């Protein structure tokens, strides 16, 4: 083991070197960062109401057949755009076509009977009935003479008399034609048969399901070959051009909203992309929990970029005017967490400190600041990229 005394020469050498080293250098003096500052600009514009809501389809339809049957084919897929009148799906029409054919035949028979009843007696039928009556009348007269002479039994005479009456009635009917009530019944039967034809033809037509609106297939609920009951939906179609944006307006602001007012709609999930719209509908009953009134904005959506269910932010332009403050867009920076910052200059300290801000709409190259600074603050508008919290600055021309 090495002794303690062996370290003494080394220790002495270290002390000597420390004594010969001189005084340590002083810390470098902080250099000010050149910046340029100015107060926010104050501008006047129309007052806006900031609200949030959701994108909704303008119209939504669940389509189903009015008949039960087997689906022959579904012609569309989810996400496909369709036009009003476009064929969506078909049922097997075989059974319904048989019913339509039978109805047509029945209607033809009923129409023939109606025509016959309304046409009056045929000449041949009238001649036959006349001849039969004349023959019966002649026999009746001869038998009556015999009966009056007590040469014919009463029973035999009654038979002859009955035949004579029947022949006379048939001759009268032949001359008069069908009775009015018989004609009316035949005509009613014909109309009923015609209605049956139209009903069965409609059933055949109802085996084809067509879209009542322009839109997009949101859901396809059944496939080809499946049996389906009447009324069950096959597809759901939504109309997304234009869309409706449903927002909630606070009670204190609802009186400022009017139908037809312009609005801006921003979609956070689309990097704040803006869409122009207008107020379409106003609610007159507040939601019990939020105490807000439902307002619907109508927004054109020709490219179908907006989709049902998207979260939206909206600005509704009111009739009043208000003053707002703005700063150049390049003055705004982001911190490590992505928050928006402005550097504010404090003349008494000649230093700048960051403030988190909330922004509004753009006005040319200027951005509206809704929260975080006042109109009297001095905002760094150049040199801010070189700054840090509490940095010493020199106000002038930025390098």
Q: Can you tell me about this structure?
A:
The chain is 29% helix and 38% strand. The protein is α+β, with helices and mostly antiparallel strands and 399 residues long. Among the domains are: 59-91 and 208-236, Beta Barrel (OB fold (Dihydrolipoamide Acetyltransferase, E2P)); 97-204, no CATH class. Strands 1, 14, 15, 16, 19 and 20 form a 6-stranded mixed sheet that branches. The chain starts with 7 loop residues before the first helix and ends with a strand.
Unreliable parts:
1-27
Order of helices and strands: HEEEEEHHHHEEEEEEEEEEEEEEE
Average pLDDT figure: 84
Strand percentage lies at 35-45%
**How far apart are the first and last residues' alpha carbons, in Å?**
65 Å
Shape: rod-shaped
Rg on CA atoms, Å: 49 Å
Structural class estimated from helices and strands: alpha+beta
Give the helix proportion (percent range).
25-40%
Q: How is the biggest beta sheet arranged?
A: 6 strands, mixed
Continuous helix count: 5
Query: How many beta-strand elements?
Result: 20
Condensed summary:
With 399 residues, this protein is α+β, with helices and mostly antiparallel strands.
Please describe the topology of this protein:
Layout: H1 8-20, E1 33-38, E2 41-64, E3 69-74, E4 81-82, E5 87-91, H2 94-119, H3 123-148, H4 154-176, H5 180-205, E6 208-210, E7 215-220, E8 227-228, E9 233-250, E10 262-267, E11 273-286, E12 292-299, E13 311-328, E14 333-334, E15 340-346, E16 351-356, E17 358-363, E18 366-371, E19 378-382, E20 393-395
Parallel strand pairs: 1-20
Antiparallel strand pairs: 1-19, 2-9, 2-13, 3-5, 3-8, 4-7, 5-6, 7-9, 9-12, 10-11, 10-13, 11-12, 13-18, 14-15, 15-16, 15-19, 17-18
Helix pairs in contact: 2-5, 3-4
């Amino acid at each position: 083991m090495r002794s303690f005394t062996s370290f003494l020469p080394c220790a002495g050498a270290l002390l000597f070197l420390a004594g010969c080293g001189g005084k340590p250098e002083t810390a470098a003096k902080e250099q000010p960062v050149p910046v340029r500052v100015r107060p926010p600009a104050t501008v006047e514009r129309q007052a806006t109401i900031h609200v949030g809501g959701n994108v909704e389809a303008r119209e939504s339809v669940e389509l189903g057949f009015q008949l039960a049957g087997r689906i022959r084919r579904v012609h569309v897929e989810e996400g496909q755009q369709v036009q009003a009148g476009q064929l969506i799906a078909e049922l097997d029409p075989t059974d319904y076509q048989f019913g339509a054919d039978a109805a047509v035949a029945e209607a033809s028979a009923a129409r023939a009977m109606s025509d016959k009843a309304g046409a009056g007696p045929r000449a041949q039928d009238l001649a036959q009935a006349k001849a039969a009556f004349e023959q019966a009348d002649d026999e009746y007269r001869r038998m009556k003479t015999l009966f009056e002479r007590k040469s014919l039994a009463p029973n035999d005479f009654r038979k002859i008399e009955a035949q004579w009456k029947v022949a006379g009635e048939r001759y009268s009917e032949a001359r008069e034609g069908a009775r009015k009530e018989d004609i009316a019944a035949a005509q009613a039967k014909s109309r009923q048969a015609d209605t049956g034809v139209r009903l069965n033809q409609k059933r055949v037509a109802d085996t084809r399901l067509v879209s009542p609106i322009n839109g997009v297939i949101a859901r396809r609920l059944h496939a080809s070959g499946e049996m389906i009951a009447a009324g069950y939906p096959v597809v759901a179609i939504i109309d997304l051009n234009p869309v409706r944006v449903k927002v909630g307006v606070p009670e204190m602001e609802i009186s400022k909203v009017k139908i037809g007012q312009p609005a801006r709609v921003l979609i956070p999930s689309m990097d704040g992309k803006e869409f122009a719209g207008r107020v379409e509908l106003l609610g007159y009953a507040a939601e019990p929990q939020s105490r807000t009134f439902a307002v619907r904005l109508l927004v054109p959506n020709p490219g179908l970029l907006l989709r049902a269910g998207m979260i939206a932010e909206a600005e509704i332009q009111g009739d009043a005017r208000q003053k707002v403050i703005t700063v150049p867009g390049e003055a705004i920076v982001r911190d490590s967490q992505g928050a928006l910052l402005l550097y504010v200059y404090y003349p008494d300290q000649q230093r700048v400190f960051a403030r988190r801000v909330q922004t509004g709409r753009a006005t040319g190259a200027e951005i509206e600041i809704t929260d975080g600074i006042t109109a009297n603050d001095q905002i760094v508008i150049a040199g801010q990229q070189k700054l840090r919290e509490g940095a010493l600055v020199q106000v002038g021309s930025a390098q």
